[in-house]
Write a structure and sequence with these properties.
The structure is a homodimer.
Chain A (H helix, E strand, L loop, with lengths): L1 H18 L3 H13 L6 H7 L4 H13 L3 E5 L7 E5 L1 H21 L6 H19 L1
Antiparallel strand pairs in A: 1-2
Helix pairs in contact in A: 1-5, 2-5, 3-4
Chain A binds a DNA duplex through α4.
DNA sequence: CGGAATAACTTGCGTAGGCAACTAGTTGAT
DNA sequence: ATCAACTAGTTGCCTACGCAAGTTATTCCG
């Protein structure tokens, strides 16, 4: 438990310094990126992140203010939005990638065997699934 | 990574509701408790927690204001303090214990096999050690 | 079709906690 | 003994984010 916080904090600092992006923001950009052109709803984004609705509203506001994402009203539900990366956002994400992977390696993955990595992945997936349900 | 945050948050809510104690505070109390009568230095406490010096100062202030811990000037180094639980702090910790273990089980441990638990423990210990060094 | 129940955000408010700069005590070298 | 380097905590400032209470928009009944 403590270990995971230590890792996250170390990565956050690395990413912030080298790419000017907080870990949480990087994560959001990565998820939004996967949604591609058509965009993603904040609610769906929240499912993939660790934020609550309110936290997400603010994070999205920040990313939008930075010009990294754009939003448009969802055509099928006027309450919601569709978020997608801007060109600038894609660039930021691309440029952050090397540092991101380096940092993951240094603080986390490089210390694990293949077996351990796999065990962690399946275990945490199961745990997250249990709590969502 | 995400999973661990989800678990921590869930436990934090449980503990806050049922025992009136944040997870981070519970963790600090537990470490201080282990130090026993003689107390522990804030710096040593920081090593076992996820907080920085400043965060720790504030957390300690809070716990002290709540009457859960007491501090005295360290006899061998006038810059520092020795922190120890008060009777009230010990009681709070004892009363929180059942909920704490229940919550760990529900959100985390119950979803893992023995083998997985062991793998996680050793892996994270190694990781934390690497980053401290 | 009208009104309750629900869903998708948003906002006001409060707190935790990081960083960098500061104070004060300790140690070590000359 | 003195002065520089270090270490222990503290504090000012700022940001992220949770919770609870809104505000629209949508859906589900009858």
């Amino acid at each position: 438990m403590v270990g995971s916080v230590v890792v996250a904090r170390a990565m956050d600092r690395d990413l912030q310094r080298q790419a000017g992006l907080a870990l949480a923001e990087h994560h959001l950009l990565a998820i939004i990126n996967e949604a591609g052109e058509q965009g993603i709803r904040p609610t769906d984004l929240a499912l993939g992140s660790t934020l609550t609705k309110s936290g997400l509203t603010r994070a999205v506001d920040r990313l939008e203010a930075l010009g990294l994402i754009g939003s448009r009203v969802c055509p099928t539900d006027a309450r919601g939005q569709l978020l997608a990366l801007t060109a600038k956002g894609r660039q930021k994400l691309r440029r952050a990638a090397p540092e991101f992977f380096r940092s993951v390696g240094q603080h986390f993955a490089d210390h694990l065997t293949e077996r351990e990595t796999e065990t962690l992945a399946t275990a945490f997936e199961r745990i997250a699934a249990a709590d969502r349900g």
